[in-house]
Amino acid sequence: MTTRILLVEDDERLAGLTAEYLSRNDLEVSIEPRGDTAEARILAEQPDLVILDVMLPGKDGFEVCRGVRQQYRGVILMLTARDEDFDQILGLELGADDYIAKPVQPRVLLARIKALLRRLPVSGDDAGDSDSQVFGQFRISQATRTATLNAQPIDLTTAEFDLLWLLASHAGNVLSRDDLLQELRGIGFDGLDRSIDARISRLRKKLNDDPENPTRIKTVRGKGYLFSKHDWN
Q1: Best CA proximity match to 39, nearest among 13, 6, 15, 12
Q2: Which domain CATH number covers 152?
């Protein structure tokens, strides 16, 4: 089954070159040049992955991401020409699954896309439930890529699920930012990247964890984060 990608990019030349390269690598790419019409297309077409530029006419990428995230279950990869922490953190807080700074080499973009697509949930007969973990009233399944708390589904982005699964898989152990980034993105912690912190903050809200005194995902000062084996009743 062909993977469908919607590229939301207003630079016609860049969009064309990017689409051509991705198409040569067996990806079906459609182009949308405007932010104010992108939302409707994303929700109507439900592509597997959206490459979403930040600077767009009509509506910026942040607004588009915010507008579709609750109803779009695919992957959102944001592109930004500004390599600033603020852009990256804001995109993640609005529900983007990953970000990449422009200009980006086509091979790097393709590798990032493939890594994100590998994390999409399986369906049908392949969606067994052998890979699951239970902590009190919290349950997370790698096979179906779902999580529940008190029998209620938790709405997670692809990146949030990956981080939560990784933390739960090492319950009771401290994982540093470097550990998490190496596992999730294949890069080390440079001392500046705030993406893990932003996702932890979002996860705590969704897990009803007190942000002032978290007990479910704890901060171990100077070391990293620890997923508690307890406190899930």
Answers
A1: 6
A2: 1.10.10.10
Same domain, 17 and 102: yes
* Integer CA distances (angstroms), 180 to 21, 116, 128, 132, 183, in order: 30, 16, 26, 20, 5
The range of the structural domain enclosing residue 159 comes to 124-227
Whether residue 99 contacts residue 87, with contact meaning beta carbons closer than 8 Å, is answered with yes
Main-chain dihedrals φ then ψ at residue 77, nearest 5 degrees: -110, 115
Residue 144 near residue 121, CB atoms below 8 Å: yes
pLDDT tens digit string along 71-109? 887 899 998 876 565 566 677 777 888 888 888 889 999
Q: Does pTM top 0.85 for this prediction?
A: no
Any domain includes 196: yes
- DSSP label at residue 191: S
Q: Do 15 and 112 sit in the same domain of this protein?
A: yes
Answer whether residue 173 is part of any domain.
yes
Helices and strands of the chain, counted as H and E runs: 8, 12
- Greater model confidence, 86 or 42: 42
For residues 68 and 198, give the distance between their C-alpha atoms in angstroms, rounded to a whole number: 19
Based on the fold, state whether residues 210 and 167 are members of the same structural domain: yes
Question: What is the C-alpha to C-alpha distance for residues 10 and 52, in angstroms, rounded to an integer?
Answer: 10
